[in-house]
Specification:
The structure is a homodimer of 243-residue chains. Chain A contains 9 helices and 13 strands. In chain A, the strands form 4 sheets. In chain A, strands 2-1-3-8-7-6 form a 6-stranded mixed β-sheet, sandwiched between helices. A 3-stranded antiparallel β-sheet of chain A has the order 9-13-10, covered by helices on one side. In chain A, strands 4-5 form a two-stranded antiparallel ribbon. Helix content of chain A is 38%, strand content 25%. In chain A, α3 crosses α4 and α8 packs antiparallel against α9. The longest helix of chain A is centred in the C-terminal third of the chain and has 18 residues. The first copy, chain A, is of the alpha/beta class and 243 residues long. Chain A is elongated. Chain A has 2 domains: 160 residues, MoaB/Mog-like domain (Molybdenum Cofactor Biosythetic Enzyme, Chain A), CATH 3.40.980; 70 residues, Alpha-Beta Plaits. Chains A and B meet through α1, α2, β2, α6 and α8 of A and α1, α2, β2, α6 and α8 of B.
């Protein structure tokens, strides 16, 4: 446990991601968003629409991280089983929530509120609702688990709703340094020396190819701006010495 | 265990994905690719560049699925620790592999083969190499775990190298049906009836919004083309009845 550190996991629920049908954009969005408010995402998992899989992943993740953010599986169809799985993971009951039902009725006419749509008002006992200004059907928050929709636009407004209520860590700062077209092998030894000299920083090298040429970047991350600036200066000097 | 079913997990290794810096394109590519050759991806995990995390995830996944495909962490820098973590997970030694070294020397001049670059020739004992026609440094395959690079172009050629050697399941077929602009709540009950009538199929509803309007799709998936066609026809008839 690092002081000032708040950790999170993202649990993406949905067969459509695992089949390669849908590209999961949510976990990237959430990780990026959380980092801006000082919360570190330490794990992402994608599991199918299978209750025992969701329960097992949820229990593994909620015991390890300060927060778990789930996406997907809270709509009206038979494969939307997230709310029941969350209730099971927490060992609590689940029933139709009058607050959630009232929200649904802001958008759905009473005569159109069929059994399937009413399922979206099923909320585990003791959960707080998460607002959904777009399509009204709420997410919820129970213990350290925040349950959100899978549709990106809806997930994003739900995250906006919970963000102000989250415990924030000390914001993580970063410096990205272009590796001047050098291959990783040329600067790996220098970078290892830097990692040893600045153990309080996370130092990564991210190789990529652009038009067949190396376009590598070095990223330094940490909570102390002065330490970060000193390390960045030493990194740049190290690279200039190799160029 | 379903007969003819071959399962896989993808393990993405890298702080850069968890920080939201880099968008993971590999797991989507792999899931889609595997489905085409009859292998079902059942779980995706993203873990940081921390040995104990990689070992724990690897051991959890390799015991549950027929194959595990990892990406990332096999370059020359200090944060590239995947090969060591895999050796540890399997309880085997790791050393410089003459075959891997020979491959590196196809691209790197002997005088440029420094200690950092030589690390890319470290391969767990008993592993087979996976070819990398792009930048030569190989991946490897040990037990049911295939270890590939994180750079997408390199990962993709490595996957091409291993694909013909994998056990393939019966190819999964799918039908995607537009929900005619209907909201999920309108067809959820009908879809649940269909799911009960065709228990051998996976039936999902995938909501999305386009320009503020519902653009939902229903996807039916299974191994028997005749069953799939019959279910698709019933789905279309059900939707037409609601339109």
């Amino acid at each position: 446990m690092v002081e000032g550190r708040v950790t999170a996991a993202v649990l993406v629920i949905g067969d459509e991601i695992l089949s390669g049908r849908t590209r999961d954009a949510n976990s990237h969005y959430i990780a990026h968003y959380l980092l801006q408010i000082g919360i570190e995402t330490r794990e992402i998992r994608v599991v199918p629409d299978v209750e025992e899989e969701i329960v097992a992943a949820l229990n593994a993740l909620r015991s390890r991280y300060d927060y778990v953010f789930t996406t997907g599986g809270i709509g009206p169809t038979h494969d939307d089983i997230t709310a029941d799985a969350v209730a099971k993971a927490f060992g609590v009951g689940i029933s139709e929530d009058p607050r959630a039902l009232a929200l649904l009725l802001e958008r759905i006419k009473p005569e159109d509120l069929n059994a399937a749509r009413r399922r979206m008002a099923r909320i585990p006992d003791g959960a707080e609702l998460v607002a959904n200004p777009i399509s009204k059907a709420p997410g919820f928050w129970i213990g350290n688990v925040v349950v959100m929709a899978g549709v990106p636009a809806v997930m994003q407004v739900m995250l906006d709703d919970v963000a102000p209520k989250l415990a924030h860590g000390v914001k993580i700062l970063s410096e990205t340094i272009d590796a001047l077209g050098l291959p990783e092998g040329a600067y790996a030894a220098g970078l290892m020396d830097l990692a040893k000299a600045f153990p309080q920083l996370s130092i990564g090298s991210y190789p990529s190819l652009r038009e067949g040429k190396f376009f590598n970047q070095i990223v330094l991350r940490g909570r102390d701006g002065d330490v970060l600036a000193a390390a960045a200066e030493r990194t740049r000097a190290m690279l200039r010495g190799l160029d």
